[in-house]
Amino acid sequence: MIQVHIQTERFDTGALLRPLHQLGGGAVASFTGIARSDHNEGRQVSAILLEHYPAMTQAALEDLATEAQARWSLLGGIIVHRVGRIIVGEEIVLTAAAAPHRAAALEACAFLIDRLKTDAPFWKKEIYSDGTAAWVKAKDSDTARADKWV
Amino acid sequence: MRLVYFASVREAMGRDGEDFDPPAHVNSIDDCLTFLAQQGAEYAAAFAQREKLRFALDQQMAKHDAPIGTATELAIFPPVTGG
């Protein structure tokens, strides 16, 4: 069971995870990414604007989930990613993996979010409370984490 | 082929895409960028820092030196920052 959703609406992590509980395994691991209350050069972030490449995004995320399912023999996996305007404190992304035991679920969940950060065509722009905005720069540390899974 | 731009590249170009008919000597993504950079100031500026650009051919991530082959869509964008 692989599910990939790209949506503008908010989501409820608990409700999305519940079907993973019914797959017969003993472990469900999940990661929820939140729009962080942050400062950049003295400006307060009030929201994130998320752009993506609609023709590519769904397939890129399905490829990641399929790879995780094969590598860790998952019973199920979910990736949800929001696009559009996301207010600080709201959820941005969910990755989750269901497996017979915890090691596979935890590793697969980490794999999904680490590789999503470098392989999926999303771009974040920070909107500041003074009305200005700036694109978020990619971090070398994210590339290093994603490369661990090769 | 269709060129599509995202994020800071889209803003620098002032549009989200355009049609492009590559001349015969344009074989790779690098060749496309070199050719386009000679077609106007906005291309030259948007593609100036080539090491900060990423690419997809027909919706698959591709390296800068990848041959364009029979691809019908070349996407040009900054490193991704989702998640």
UniProtKB/TrEMBL annotation, chain A:
<dbReference type="InterPro" id="IPR003448">
    <property type="entry name" value="Mopterin_biosynth_MoaE"/>
</dbReference>
<dbReference type="InterPro" id="IPR036563">
    <property type="entry name" value="MoaE_sf"/>
</dbReference>
<comment type="pathway">
    <text>Cofactor biosynthesis; molybdopterin biosynthesis.</text>
</comment>
<comment type="subunit">
    <text>Heterotetramer of 2 MoaD subunits and 2 MoaE subunits. Also stable as homodimer. The enzyme changes between these two forms during catalysis.</text>
</comment>
<comment type="similarity">
    <text>Belongs to the MoaE family.</text>
</comment>
<protein>
    <recommendedName>
        <fullName>Molybdopterin synthase catalytic subunit</fullName>
        <ecNumber>2.8.1.12</ecNumber>
    </recommendedName>
</protein>
<keyword id="KW-0501">Molybdenum cofactor biosynthesis</keyword>
<comment type="function">
    <text>Converts molybdopterin precursor Z into molybdopterin. This requires the incorporation of two sulfur atoms into precursor Z to generate a dithiolene group. The sulfur is provided by MoaD.</text>
</comment>
<dbReference type="Pfam" id="PF02391">
    <property type="entry name" value="MoaE"/>
</dbReference>
TrEMBL record, chain B:
<dbReference type="InterPro" id="IPR012675">
    <property type="entry name" value="Beta-grasp_dom_sf"/>
</dbReference>
<dbReference type="InterPro" id="IPR003749">
    <property type="entry name" value="ThiS/MoaD-like"/>
</dbReference>
<dbReference type="InterPro" id="IPR016155">
    <property type="entry name" value="Mopterin_synth/thiamin_S_b"/>
</dbReference>
<protein>
    <submittedName>
        <fullName>MoaD/ThiS family protein</fullName>
    </submittedName>
</protein>
<dbReference type="Pfam" id="PF02597">
    <property type="entry name" value="ThiS"/>
</dbReference>
